[in-house]
Design goal:
The structure is a homodimer. Chain A has 9 helices and 10 strands. By secondary structure, the first copy, chain A, is an alpha/beta fold. Chain A starts with 5 loop residues before the first helix and ends with a helix. The model of chain A has no long low-confidence stretch (mean pLDDT about 95). The first copy, chain A, binds a DNA duplex through α3 and β2.
Chain lengths: ~210, ~210
DNA sequence: GATAACTTGTGAAGAAATTCACAAGTTCAA
DNA sequence: TTGAACTTGTGAATTTCTTCACAAGTTATC
């Protein structure tokens, strides 16, 4: 398959959210124009994005909401459940573990790890915090799909290497640190400091 | 000034983080090549990014770490302190309020708001939660620079409009909802669900 | 069935971002 | 002073992403 741009995948996510909204409201069809208006993009962009994966619409009519959202879920790999582990049971890690929005979209949090012995054994939202040292062994028995890193920046690289060695091929990184991983491993970063700096720049130079 | 791409600003943030690291370690100069290696980009990209703002390096030698980081802080608007308010004192909002990493970079959290009367009056990390209804009045007296939205998706648009009306010109949005705001308002979104879906796509189509 | 009003899908054009490649400046050693 | 080894800054080339524009298909109305 032709390489799909990151920006395209992000937009597919956005489209899917709208479609699910429309689905709930019982609307049967939607045009690329309507989809674009809510996503802050153009109808041509919507059609081009979708065209990488096939042609799902009907000329003159638009897209079937039910069909298109099903196709997008399929494209995004959301038809299956993904096993997610959270590493780091600090403020952010704990907040993530308790946030149930993930489960709704098929991302099931199966374990929380921390390296601090004082935290190991405690519970977060029904999950017992496990020792990070036990990850390699446990990952062998029940391989997780995605590791969420909510550790301090200083520990991030080390933990990432451990995670990669354990066979995990996708990382969502909350630590403000640029991870170096093999390119077979997918990494997405959520970096609040960077976003704030983006706003600071906009306010300063806008 | 020529319009600067978002991706450029993000990279400047990344460069700055490395530079601060180097500064701490007492390293005096750095080349675009070294800066690039850690940011996962190329030396040409680094030089091009910087060239939009001036020429800060010395041929044959590289960049002065101290000087370049000072210039980047200036460019990103990090020389002053920004007043930040958090709206929504749920799991995410509370975790953000307690996260002290922001303050270190000049983003001072000055208030937390919530519309739930049961939460108003309680404290989070030393800050009393205020009624959202009081925001317009209070913003008049002490105008905040940035509003962090940590509210449910269903409330996000409404709250955003309130924030804009209160004169705030920058929003960091944690709600999984695409905000519609005037283009004079800068918005950055932190969308964990979207990032996870990006990973799901990568795992599925990788 | 003819016509008007829509809307998709997609090559082509255009814009934007990235990479190349090299002149020009700097440092160091002999 | 010369030469070798670096490194920047930047036009030009290239690649990537977005927008344009229109043929072709669909629906609704009379």
């Amino acid at each position: 398959m032709k390489r799909i741009a990151d920006s395209t995948v992000r937009r597919l996510s956005i489209y899917l959210r709208f479609l699910e909204d429309f689905e709930k409201r019982g609307i049967a069809t939607i045009s690329s124009d309507e989809l674009a208006a809510r996503g802050g993009t153009t109808s041509a962009q919507v059609r081009k994005d979708l065209s990488f994966f096939g042609s799902f619409g009907k000329r003159g009519l638009g897209y079937s909401v039910a069909e298109l959202s099903a196709r997008l879920r399929q494209i995004l790999g959301l038809e299956r459940e993904w096993q997610v582990i959270i590493i780091g049971a600090g403020k952010i890690g704990a907040a993530l573990a308790q946030y149930h929005g993930f489960a709704q979209r098929g991302f099931r949090i199966v374990a929380v790890y921390d390296s601090d012995p004082a935290k190991v054994g405690r519970s977060v939202d029904g999950l017992v915090i496990r020792s990070l040292a036990s990850l390699p062994e446990e990952a062998k028995r029940h391989p997780p799909d995605i590791a969420v890193l909510a550790v301090p920046a200083t520990a991030a690289q080390e933990v990432a290497e451990m995670v990669v060695k354990a066979g995990i091929r996708a990382i969502l990184n909350f630590a403000p640190h640029q991870l170096q991983v093999p390119e077979s491993v997918a990494v997405k970063a959520v970096n609040m400091a960077m976003e704030l700096e983006g706003l600071s720049f906009a306010l300063t130079n806008g």
